[in-house]
């Protein structure tokens, strides 16, 4: 049994209009179906080839800077378990609990894999957080007290990171955030 991409009615009209009698109809119909099938296949191949081969859900972190060096910085540990290193102190406005902040950041797992960054997909602008309460506890705690222009490295244990989430992929991971505070608003 042969399946056709088009109905037989237009072909029969074509045969009758141009009085084609020398070529058997079934052979001509197969030929037309083969040409149409080939055309559809070519369009499909061109469509697939022209598509981006990268995963459309992949986020590009290639413009994120290298991790801040912490070798010459003093490690500060808080009562909650957060550890941070002051890379540069900064000299502008200081972040308080209700501050709106604009900052550059890159979040990494302790093996160096980037999972989030303000630099994603080549973004040159800082990310603005209107509500520090929406951030994970360790990030919020590490940003409070920073001054504009300051840089810190936060080492956030799981219970101050995503450990409170039963479904987050990073719930058991210690996280490293390199932060540069661009601007403080109130």
Any overview of this molecule?
With 186 residues, this protein is α+β, with helices and mostly antiparallel strands. The chain is built from 3 helices and 7 strands; from the N terminus they run ααβββββαββ. The longest helix has 26 residues, at 25-50. The N and C termini lie far apart (75 Å).
Describe the structure concisely for a colleague.
With 186 residues, the chain is of the alpha+beta class. It is built from 3 helices and 7 strands.
Helices and strands, with pairings:
Elements: H1 8-18, H2 25-50, E1 75-77, E2 83-88, E3 100-109, E4 114-117, E5 127-129, H3 137-143, E6 151-156, E7 175-185
Antiparallel strand pairs: 1-2, 2-6, 3-4, 3-5, 3-7, 6-7
DSSP helix fraction: 10-25%
- Secondary structure tally, helices: 3
| Shape, per Cα inertia axes | rod-shaped
Q: Structural class of the secondary structure composition?
A: alpha+beta
Mean pLDDT: 86
Number of strands: 7
Q: Give the SSE order as H and E letters.
A: HHEEEEEHEE
| Proportion of residues in β-strands | 15-25%
Radius of gyration: 31 Å
- Ends: how far apart? 75 Å
Unreliable parts = none
Sheet with the most strands, sense and barrel status: 7 strands, antiparallel
């Amino acid at each position: 049994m042969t399946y056709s991409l088009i109905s037989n009615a237009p072909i029969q009209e074509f045969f009758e209009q141009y009085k084609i009698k020398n070529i058997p109809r079934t052979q001509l119909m197969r030929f037309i179906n083969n040409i149409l099938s080939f055309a559809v296949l070519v369009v499909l191949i061109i469509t697939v080839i022209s598509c981006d081969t990268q995963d459309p859900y992949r986020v590009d972190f290639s413009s994120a800077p290298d991790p801040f060096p912490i070798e010459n910085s003093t490690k500060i540990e808080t009562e909650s378990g957060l550890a941070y290193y002051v890379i540069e102190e900064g000299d502008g406005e200081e972040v308080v609990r209700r501050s709106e902040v604009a900052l550059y950041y890159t979040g990494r797992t302790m093996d160096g894999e980037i999972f989030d960054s303000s630099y994603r997909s080549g973004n040159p602008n800082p990310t603005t957080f209107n509500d520090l309460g929406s951030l994970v506890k360790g990030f919020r705690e590490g940003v409070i007290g920073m001054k504009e222009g300051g840089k810190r490295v936060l080492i956030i244990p799981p219970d101050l990171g995503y450990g409170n989430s039963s479904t987050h992929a990073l719930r058991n991971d210690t996280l490293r955030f390199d932060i540069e505070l661009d601007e403080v608003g109130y």
